[in-house]
Amino acid sequence: MTANGATPLGATTPEEVAFAQDVPRGEPILEVRDLLKHFPLTKGVLFKKQVGAVKAVDGVSFDLMQGETLGIVGESGCGKSTLAKVLMNLEPATAGSVKYKGEEISHLSGAALKAVRRNIQMVFQDPYTSLNPRMTVGDIIGEPFEIHPEVAPKGDRRKAVQDLLDVVGLNPEYINRYPHQFSGGQRQRIGIARGLALKPEVIICDEPVSALDVSVQAQVINLLEQLQGEFNLSYMFIAHDLSIVRHISDRVGVMYLGRMVEIGTDLEIYDHATHPYTQALLSAVPVPDPAAREHRDRIVLTGDVPSPANPPSGCRFRTRCWKAQEKCAREDPALTVRDWLEGRARHDSACHFAGERDNLI
Length: 361
What we know:
Blueprint: H1 14-19, E1 28-43, E2 49-65, E3 69-73, H2 80-87, E4 95-100, E5 103-104, H3 110-119, E6 120-123, H4 137-147, H5 157-167, H6 184-196, E7 202-206, H7 214-231, E8 234-238, H8 242-248, E9 251-256, E10 259-265, H9 266-271, H10 276-283, H11 290-294, H12 326-330, E11 348-349
Parallel strand pairs: 3-8, 3-9, 6-7, 7-8
Antiparallel strand pairs: 1-2, 1-4, 4-5, 9-10, 10-11
Helix pairs in contact: 4-5, 4-6, 5-6, 6-7
Family: Belongs to the ABC transporter superfamily.
Keywords: ATP-binding, Nucleotide-binding, Transport
Organism: Kitasatospora phosalacinea
């Protein structure tokens, strides 16, 4: 119910009414606890038997606050995109909890799931394959209105689509063009317009600029920041480029082999990293100053990333970590604040021997 006792537009069930409530800025809008997504490994043709599982996401916990941007970084294959799909319910969670506005959404279906998907949208990585080449831009952006007709009545949809094109910096007259007539940056703007169509509160950006030129990346990032202030959006921003993540994010979470290994504000992570894996990532960031590059303490990791089907015991990073000891093989380190850390180093880190390292960047 709204403040005056009326049922919000389009909300017909108790779950939908709850999803329509406003969340104060700075309070959690998305709460993820111990989330698992395991893909079974089978053998046999007629009689299939499960012989293991790929642990793509294996016990991830975090909060996304109203109005903030949470950056997610990590190597390819660490589970970032799978995490995004599970949050959207595009992939069913194996176990764990995902709460939106305090309501469990990981096992929803039907009208309740439809209500959630109106409020949580996604911008995909590849602007070339995420748009249907047989549909015009107007049909692509207007398609969400067919699924949620309460957002825009039929007679108003063309005007609504043109307004969305204008909001993302495209000419409204492009409404009858096809995706192949646009550049990569323009196509990503179309994808963002589609994500905004239903006026969501949360947008999950799955590497939205990795396929774009550097100059176009800056334009899209600036657009996302502008839209966040204009529409009070909350972003989960997945990317490989640490400099882009620092520019746009309020907090940053670092993933390794299906786990969150460190999470904190952008200043805590970039200037006071305490987990060895985060420190190794930061040491690989290119430095434009030759003098600074000479005195830089570069961390070179040895060995390959272990298979998510057979991760190491204890700490998953121990097979590549210079701090590893016997305790790391026996005990799985919790994602928590270590007692001996001080100042901005006091943030969540999944390492038994968490501590700062100087001259990383």
